Structures are given as C-alpha cells and as structure tokens.
Automatic annotation (TrEMBL), chain A:
It holds the Pfam family ILEI. PROSITE patterns: GG_LECTIN. Its EC number is 2.4.1.-. This is Protein O-linked-mannose beta-1,2-N-acetylglucosaminyltransferase. The manganese ion interacts primarily with the substrate UDP-N-acetylglucosamine. It catalyses: 3-O-(alpha-D-mannosyl)-L-threonyl-[protein] + UDP-N-acetyl-alpha-D-glucosamine = 3-O-(N-acetyl-beta-D-glucosaminyl-(1->2)-alpha-D-mannosyl)-L-threonyl-[protein] + UDP + H(+). Its main location: Golgi. One of its GO terms (cellular component) is Golgi membrane. Interacts with DAG1 (via O-linked mannose moiety). Interacts (via transmembrane domain) with FKTN; the interaction is direct and is required for normal location in Golgi membranes. It is found in: Golgi apparatus membrane.
Automatic annotation (TrEMBL), chain B:
GO terms for biological process: glycoprotein metabolic process. The gene is Fktn. It is a single-pass membrane protein. Residues 1-278 form the Ribitol-5-phosphate transferase FKTN N-terminal domain. It comes from Cettia cetti. InterPro entries: FKTN/MNN4/W02B3.4-1, FKTN_N, LicD/FKTN/FKRP_NTP_transf. The keyword Transport does not apply. It is found in: Membrane. It comes from the Eukaryota. Residues 292-328 form the LicD/FKTN/FKRP nucleotidyltransferase domain. This is Ribitol-5-phosphate transferase.
Length: 659, 461
C-alpha cells in the first residue's frame, strides 16, 4: 500500500501534466474510472481494517507474553504447595472400625489409618477425627480411660474438635474403668446410645459427626469380670460435604493463611481454628528494656507431642522480650503434625532422623540440635535450651537478661536454669531470689557455647551408650565442680504427662505442685551476690542472722517451723561425708519435695521456704557451714524406712502395666 | 459535484490511511523497544530512555526495600568500580544533588545488592508490595549448608537469591548468611527444573556461579546519583575480595560414608588432640592473617578436611602451605610472639624452605613454602641428619575458601588433584604409619645440601 499514492496533493508538482493526461483519459473511460475509484475505496477500507487488526493483535501478543511469564512463576508456587493436598473428589467414604481386647484398627476407604495390636500399650479409647470434606485424618488420640483423669483429657479434646468433623471411636482392652459421668454424657451428646452404659471390658465402636448425624455404633458386652466382650467390627458409610462448608471465612491475611493451612490439616487445637474470634497466633508481648538475650538463639527440643508443642510455643511467644527469629524447633523424627504447629506460628523447624533408641535417641537429638543451633547462629555465645513440655514464664527472658552476664564472667558457673527442683508451692516464695546449686536442673536453661564446643560436644555420649544426656551432664567428669544459677520460683513449668520417663502418677507426685512465676518484670535482687566469692559472704551473712530451730522436734511436723513470716531459720542434719544424703533424702520425702536424687544443694546446704520463712538446712559435719552450728545442737538423723517402702519411689512401672 | 465528492472522499481515506500507517509504525517501535528490554537486547536504540530506566528501577527497588526496613547494600561490581574512582569525593560530600547520572545509568543488565539474612524477617509482605509496584520476582532456594554437616537433619530450604525484574532492568539480591568461622557466605544460584530459565540472562550475573565467602564488610551510607545507598566502606578491597571469593563446601556426605567404613576415634586422646589441633590452627590463622600472608591447608590437614571434614586424630601435626612469593621475614617473630617457638627451619627462601613451630602439648605446626614453576608447583623437604633434599610435586592449583573447625581458611580448589598427587589414588584408606620421606606419592630425591650451607639450611632448636 505504500506504493499506491492516489492523493493528488501528495504528488510532486512536476508530474502534474502526466496526471492531467491520465485524468483526461480516464474521464473518457467512465466505467474504468468508476471501477478504479471503487477499488481505491475498497483498498483503503481494507488497509484500515488490517491496521486495526494489527494493532489489536500486537496488543494481545504483548499481554499474553506478560501473562505467560507471570504464569511460570505461579506454576512454581503451585508445584511447591500442591503435593501436600491431593484432592479427593469422592463423595462417600467407607469406614471400617474394629474393637477388641488386643487389637483395634480403623480403615477409611480401604486405607488403614489406625492399627494397634501392640501388647501392653494403646489401652483405652482411641479417637480419630476426619475432615468432613476431604476425609483426611486430622487427629489421632488414645485416652487410657482405665486410668484416672484420662477421661477429662478426652472431654477436653472432644470439646475442642470443630463442629461438623467426623469422629471415630474404638476401645482397645479396657476403656470404662475411669470413664466418669461427664465423659459419658459428652459421648451421649455426640449421639452415642451405648456410651452411658459402657462397662468393664466392653468392646465398642462408634462413628458420628460432631453436632450431626450418627453413622453407626456397635457394642459387645463383657459377659463376666474376668473376660472381655466379643470383638466388634463396624462397617459404615460417611457422606462428605463440600470444602467451602468445612472451612471458616477468615479475612485473607498472611496470618490467616497460615491458620487456614493448619486448620484444614489437624484438629484438637481448640479456638485457634474457631470461625468466630479465633485465638491469635501472633502475640507481640512487650519488648524488654535493655534486653541482653534478644540475640540469643532458642532451641526448642521436641518429639511427637504436637499438642504440647503448641502449648509450649504459645507461652514462649507470649513471654516478654521474646525474639521469634531466634527460635528453632528441633523435631526428633519426620512427624508432620509438630511441623504444622511450628509453621502455624511462622517459626523455623528442623527435623532430625532418629538415631538409636530410648534415652540415647533423646541424647543424640540433643546433640544434633545444639550443634545445629550454634551452626545456624555462629555469632551466639549462648543458647537457650527448652523442651516441648514446658510452660515459659512471662518474665523468662527478663530473668535471663538480668543474670546471663554471670555465666560469661564467672568461670565457676555451669549453667543458668529456669527451674528450681525444690521450688514447690509450699517451698518457694521469692520471685526475685536466686541460688547457686551444684546440680544441673535442665528444664529451660542456658548453655554457653564455649562449654558446649570445647568440652561437651567432642565427648558427647555416642549412640550405642544408652545414656540420659542430662544425667551425663551432671556427672562430675563433665560438671567439674561448677554450679548452676536457679531462681527460687521457677520460670518454667513442666506440664508433660506423657513422655519417655514420665507418666500421670509421677507427674502428679513431683511436678504438679511446682511453683511457677506469673509476675511480669520481676527485678532480681541479688544478682551480683551470686558470684562465687560473693555468694559465700552472702551465705555466711544469712547463717549469721538465722535463728536455730528447736532440734528436739520432728522436722517433718508443721510445728517444727514457728508460725512467722519473713524470718530466716536454720536446721542441722547429719551428713557424714560429701555424698551422705541419708537424712536429707528422708527430710525431702516428708517435706514432699524432690527426693528421687539429690538436687538443689550447695556445699551441703539447701535453701527453701517453709511457711513463708527462709529455711536453711546444713549437713553436719560435711558442709563447710557446719561451723555455724551451736555446740549445744545435735544434728538430726533420720533413718531410711525398710526396703519395701522405698520401692514406692518408682511408680512408673506400676502404671505401665496392663489390666 | 460528484467528482469533487469522490476526490474528497479519496483524499480523506488516504489521509486516514497515512495516519494509521504512522500510528502503526509508532506502535511497532514502542512494542519493539519493550520487547528489547525484556530480552535485554544490546540494541542501543534509545540510549537515554534505557539509562533512566535503570536509575528508575534502582530507585523503585530502594524505595520498596526501605519501606519494609530491610537493610541492603550495593555490591554491584560495575558500579562499585565507578564509585571507587570517585570515592574520596563521594565520601566528602555525602549529599547534595549530582549534576548527572554517573553510576546507576551505566549500561548493564543487573544491579546487584546484598542482604544479610539475619537482618530481616522473611516477610511475605515485601513481595506483595513488589508485585503492586510492577516488579516480577524470582526466589532461588536451596538446602541450608549450615545443617549439611549434621547427621540427618533436614531443615527448611533457605532463600539464596532473589531477582526483581521491572521493564528492562533487573535487581539481583544476594542473601548472605553468617557461618561459623565469623564470615559471610552466599550460595550458588541453581535453577530448579520448573523455573523460568529465560526470566533474566542468568549467565551474566556477577554472583551465583559459585558459592562465595566474604568478610563482614564495614558499610558506608552514601548518596550517589541522588539515591541513598549503603556500600562497602572500601569498594576496591571488596572488589579484590570478590575476585577470590569462591567457596568450597566440605564433602559431608562422603565424610559420613568414610566414617561408616572407618568409625571415628572417639577416645579421650583423639578428643584432646583435635582440641589442641583446632586451637593451634586458630592461632596460626590469626597470626598469618594479621601479617596478611595467604596460606592454605596442606598435607594431612588438607586430607582430613577433604576426606572426613575433621582433623585426622592420629596425624600429630597441623600442616599449612604458603606461596614463597608471600614469604615475609616477620613470620618467625610473629609466631614466637604468639607463643609458638620455632622448632626447626630447613632450607632457605630461594630453595625448599620449611618452618616448624612447637604448639601446645606436642602438636607441631608445619609450614611448607611452595615454589611455582611453569607447569607445576613444588615444595621441599630436608632430612636433618643426612642433609638430603626432597621435592614434592603438585599440579598447578588455585585457592578457594572453605570452613574448617569453625575457621574460614583456604584450600586448593582442585583439592582432589592435590590430595591425589600427595597421597595417591588410595587416599581414601587411612594409613597410620607415614614416612614423609618415602610414603608420599609425589616425593622425589633432590640431591643433598652442600655441607658448607648446613648451618644455614638445617636449623634445629
């Protein structure tokens, strides 16, 4: 079209004569001229159309290109996210539930989601929660309702499960002995007709929707006390709902995206997943002024107890002065749910392939976690070590911030711990008071990098040595006479009931009544006096002002200590040499404090509170403080009881037994 | 009447045609320039437009970054080279408008910035804002090398590089991590299968071909081309550092396999020796770094690093290599001041120099000096009692950084050739009885020292 220039004005002037001749010729051939003109018009129109089309085309091409590159990026994101959520379009689920004395199993659409035929474990009511839209298993629990209080835990759990979820119950062995009325009525409210009448060694299976229909229930009565009910197998169908119905409509924010991901996968975390006013997952506690531990990495040692981890992280992230960026959760094993919890809170988590067994496995996990912590934070001089079954006090970091410089400056220190082994409700009183002790309590403590790198790491017990890491750390070869700083009132609370060395009885006897500080911003009062030499001065001052108690009375009796407040008392017990703890152990037993081994001593001296009075116990003559004993006083001697009674101290075995 | 009408119509139509034609041309040109930009074509069509695009993209990026309080600093070698020329002037007049766009408008495809990982929380918000501002971005993640050395830990993958693209310019953001040994590390840039290989011309990036190790830089806030930006305080030394920054990760997986075959010695003696060797190496590194003498792990220490990522517990000494061109007379007094007395000195600067210092508790520090020839490198050995000379030959090598016992040190980049030259193809098998005169694979007799030189070339203390 460039060549065809019909417009006369465009043409140069000298060609005018040629043009006139041409015009004249055309005028003589009207038909031809008309044709030409029409052709020209048509051609022009075509040009216009082609032009417009070209413009539109290039435009579209440009857009498409932009979209393409954007799509490439999208694809990448999808590829990362997709594999974790295989979409199941099926509308109906086949569910099979089996209950018997020695075996339970649950199969969903032919896939076994629970199978437990192990001997001597898994007794009680097994509960499985399914997502009503996808059929995915969201939670798996077993409540040993043969034992006390487990039914309360079950009620708590069932109340936390969101409405609409599918619940599957089955009993293994025995599940009714400590199943109280409250629990039975909760099961009844879920639609179970049998639950209120469940009795000794009955077999029972039940499938229902929380707050909705019942899909099936089967029950077999135990004919006699000594026998179990017949095994029961329940086969039923569950109708799935749409995904939209199963999810809440929270506003679309970064936090809620994490929440949504979490809540679509797991159950049993209560209000964090409730549609109305879900509990926050970001806490923003007040920052600490002059925080000396802001850059100290925090290693959370975890196993497969996601509910504990959830509770622990909540308290940790609510503590004043916490720095979430420094927190790493180390999970022993490739468990998904603990990782989900870590991701919910936006923290970083590391999984660790288990090495060795039992205590040695824990010990190897500790080593890997500590090494990794100092690798990830090469600048750090310290690390805070926490476990997943601890509540963290609101002033945990404030406590550390005020005391951490001692660890660096005083070479006679081994650690700072948030836990006072002897700090029970009735024996701890002063949140601003600190002690030096020869034992390492653990349960929330600070480790110095130099200690770990130069001494502990190179000779850490190898996997084939089935040692407890904490026992190993307490050994004199490692501790080398160094001491730990602890608070009078613990800054952590050990709530774990299920654990490797832990069970309900043990927890109730030794941990439940432990005192836990809830006061924020406590100003510690005697930090400088904790240095090695200052502490001796402080102890001598204390002993100097202390009133000697009446040693003719029974130290176990309440009346041993006068009904006063805020006084300092001292008593002397017999302690022949440094390792003679006979009397101390008996005293600890009757005072209902830690008596399983010796904790909380400093040169043969124990410090605690009784009736709000500071109460000092000095072991004579082993303790260097024996010189403070008036000559008239005879140290108290308490004999250990006969052997059988001593065995009570190991209740763990009794509880693990099958019925 | 009709005729005029027709002519007028014709004229009008031709005019529209022309206008469309022009319009189309314009549009085509615009489209072409956009496409050029996207493909980073070298066509210098509209120079001024391109130049200001670069400046604008950098400005937008800095705005984005500062709105999220993320501290980045400029490490672009092209710009830093220019900045370095005018560094005095820039330092002396930190602000004040600049008359022309001297730095950020120079022709290039990328501007490179660095980000310290620990100074920001991996906020998603940044990328949302970036998208709103029109940036396309790409994130390159990979395994965390700080956990690589650990038995079976699997952490989350960490971001190593980000690329933000806007119009014809791209910002390359390199994420630096702190490593044990008090240095900064950046990862290699490796594209995963599903990534867009044409997002930017990756080959032209200045960072990411290899991982790199850097000292923690001191930063300086300057205003160049009316933009406030942090740069390394001393750009020329940064550029120098950059040219030798290649980092080698220890071969942790192979080391684990080695320990499967030959379990590690966990005896108290081994623990003690390793502790001593580590502190001796730290002391030696401190001393030599203070002198500015470049050194690398040699012989048994290098083998320990390469084979098992640790000190070989029965090796009894720490071995370092230094190029003879880096020799300084201060080396001996410096070590003596650091508490390491000279144990023996063999050879002379011109030939086969070797120094040995006594470390704490029987651990010896051997320093071998290496002599470069046209096609090989060698160091010498001397037998004290006979005055015999030995020569150990190595293929040519360059130096790379690595992390060893919490220290940033050099090793030969071509470690395998180096180790094989020294220990033969069987280097993977531990040998506990080692004779330095006959065991090495690459030892050659090199004559005998003339007797009259013995006093000088064989000094034992």
């Amino acid at each position: 079209m460039d060549e065809w220039k019909p417009n006369p004005t465009v043409k140069p002037h000298k060609k005018r004569s040629w043009y006139l001749a041409w015009k004249y010729k055309l005028m003589n051939q009207r038909a031809l001229r008309k044709l030409c003109q029409t052709g020209a018009v048509l051609f022009l129109l075509v040009t216009v159309i082609v032009n417009i089309k070209l413009i539109l085309d290039t435009r579209r091409a440009a857009y498409e290109e932009e979209e393409e590159s954007a799509q490439d990026y999208d694809d990448e994101m999808l590829n990362v996210e997709a594999p974790r959520h295989p979409v199941n379009n099926k509308k109906v689920l086949d569910v099979e539930v089996y209950s018997s004395r020695s075996k339970v199993y649950v199969a969903v659409d032919g896939t076994t989601v629970l199978e437990d035929e192990a001997r001597e474990q898994g007794r009680g009511i097994h509960v499985i929660v399914l997502n009503q839209a996808t059929g995915h298993v969201m939670a798996k629990r077993v409540f040993d309702t043969y034992s006390p209080h487990e039914d309360e835990a079950m009620v708590l759990f069932l109340n936390m499960v969101a409405r609409g979820r599918i619940l599957i119950f089955t009993i293994k062995d025995e599940g009714s002995f400590h199943l109280k009325e409250t629990a039975k009525s909760v099961l009844k409210s879920l639609g179970s007709q049998v639950a209120p009448f469940l009795s000794w060694r009955d077999m029972w299976t039940f499938v229902g929707k929380k707050g909705g229909e019942v899909y099936g229930e089967k029950h077999a009565k135990s004919p006699a006390l000594s026998t179990w009910g017949e095994p029961v197998l329940l086969k039923t169908e569950v109708h799935l709902t749409s995904v939209e119905d199963a999810e809440c409509h929270w506003p679309d924010t970064e936090l809620n995206r994490r929440r949504r991901r979490f809540c679509s996968k797991v159950e049993g975390y209560g209000s964090v997943c409730s549609c109305k006013d879900p509990t926050p997952i970001e806490f923003n506690p007040d920052p600490l002024k002059d925080n000396k531990v802001f850059d100290v990495p925090v290693a959370v040692i975890a196993g497969n107890r996601p509910n504990y981890l959830y509770r622990m992280l909540r308290s940790l992230l609510s503590a004043q002065g916490v720095n979430p960026q420094m927190i790493t959760v180390f999970i022993d094993g490739y468990y998904e749910e603990p990782m989900d919890v870590v991701e919910l809170f936006g923290l970083s988590g590391i999984q660790h392939t288990p090495i060795s067994i039992k205590n040695a496995r824990v010990s190897q996990h500790y080593k890997a976690s500590l090494t990794a912590t100092f690798n990830l934070f090469p600048d750090a001089k310290f690390a805070v070590v926490l476990e997943e079954d601890l509540d963290i006090s609101v002033d945990f970091f404030s406590f550390l911030s005020q005391s951490i410089h001692l660890l660096e400056e005083d070479e006679s220190l081994y650690c700072i711990s948030a836990w006072n082994d002897q700090g029970y409700e009735h024996t701890a009183e002063d949140p601003s008071l600190l002690y030096r002790v020869e034992t390492m309590p653990g349960l929330g403590w600070v480790l110095q990098k130099s200690l770990y790198k130069d001494e502990l790491e190179p000779k850490w017990p190898t996997p084939e040595k089935l040692w407890d890491w904490d026992m190993w750390m307490r050994m004199p070869e490692q501790r080398k006479g160094r001491e730990c700083i602890i608070p009078d009132i613990s800054r952590s609370y050990h709530f774990g009931i299920v654990g490797l060395n832990m069970n309900g009885y043990f927890h109730e006897a030794y941990f439940k009544k432990h005192k836990f500080n809830t006061v924020p911003n406590v100003q510690l009062k005697n930090v400088e006096s904790l240095r090695k030499d200052n502490y001796e001065t402080e102890i001598h001052r204390l002993l100097g002002e202390a009133e000697v108690l009446d040693h003719s009375k029974n130290p176990c009796e309440d009346s041993f200590v006068p009904d006063t407040e805020g006084r300092v008392y001292v008593m002397f017990i017999r302690m022949e040499q440094e390792a003679d703890f006979t009397t101390w152990t008996q005293l600890a037993k009757c005072l209902h404090i830690w008596d399983l081994d010796v904790r909380g001593n400093h040169k043969g001296l124990w410090r605690l509170f009784r009736k709000k009075n500071h109460f000092l116990v000095v072991g004579v003559p082993a303790s260097p403080y024996s010189s403070k004993k008036p000559s008239s006083v005879t140290p108290i001697f308490m004999e250990p009881p006969a052997k059988e009674e001593g065995a009570v101290a190991v209740p763990a075995v009794a509880a693990a037994e099958q019925t | 009447m009709q005729k005029i009408n027709r002519n007028v119509v014709l004229a009008l139509l031709s005019l529209t045609s022309l206008i469309f034609l022009l319009f189309q041309l314009c549009y085509y040109k615009f489209y072409l320039s956009q496409k050029n930009g996207a493909a980073f074509s070298k066509v210098r069509g509209s120079q001024s437009g391109q130049e200001s695009t670069r400046w604008h993209v950098v400005r937008k990026f800095l705005g984005l970054i500062s709105s999220h309080n993320i501290p980045v600093y400029l490490i672009d070698p092209l710009i830093l080279r220019l900045v370095d020329k005018d560094i005095e002037q820039i330092r002396s007049s930190p602000d004040g408008p600049s008359p022309e766009c001297k730095y950020f408008c120079t022709p290039r495809d990328f501007t490179t910035f660095a980000l310290l990982d620990k100074t920001w929380k991996h906020e998603v918000g940044l990328f949302k804002t970036a998208e709103k501002m029109g940036f396309q971005w790409l994130k390159i993640i990979n395994k965390d090398p700080r956990l690589d050395g650990m038995d079976d830990l699997s952490g989350m993958e960490i971001p190593l590089h980000y690329i933000f693209k806007l119009a014809s310019h791209a910002i390359h953001l390199v994420v630096f991590y702190e490593r044990s040994g008090n240095f900064l590390w950046h990862g290699p840039l490796r594209l995963k299968q599903h990534m867009d290989r044409k997002f930017v011309p990756f080959r032209k990036l200045h960072f990411g071909r290899y991982p790199g190790a850097y000292e923690k830089p001191e930063l300086l806030l300057v205003s160049i081309d009316d933009l406030e930006v942090q740069i390394p305080k001393n750009p020329s030394s940064f550029l120098e550092e950059m040219s030798h920054s290649r980092f080698l990760e220890c071969r942790y997986r192979e080391a684990r396999a080695f320990f499967q075959l030959y379990p590690d010695d966990a005896s108290l003696d081994a623990v003690e020796f390793r502790k001593k060797a580590k502190s001796l190496l730290h002391l030696a590194a401190l001393t030599l770094n203070n002198l500015g003498v470049k050194f690398w792990l040699s012989s048994g220490t290098c083998l320990g690093w390469y084979r098992q990522c640790n000190v070989i517990p029965y090796s009894k000494d720490v071995d370092l290599g230094i190029f003879i061109r880096d020799y300084k007379a201060d080396i001996i007094p410096a070590f003596q001041n650091a508490g390491l007395p000279l144990k023996h000195k063999f050879g002379k600067v011109e030939d086969s120099l070797e120094l040995s210092f006594q470390g704490e508790g029987d651990v010896k520090l051997d320093i071998f000096f290496f002599y470069e020839e046209d096609d090989y490198i060698w160091n010498g050995g001397t037998q004290a009692k006979s005055g015999k000379k030995f020569k150990y030959l190595f293929p040519k090598f360059t130096l790379c950084w690595t992390e060893f016992v919490e220290l940033k040190v050099h090793v030969p980049c071509e470690t395998l050739q180096y180790v094989e030259a020294n220990y033969g193809l069987e280097w993977k098998v531990p040998v506990k009885t080692w004779d330095w005169k006959s065991s090495p694979f690459n030892v050659q007799d090199n004559g005998v020292w003339p007797i009259d030189e013995w006093d000088n070339v064989i000094q034992i203390y």
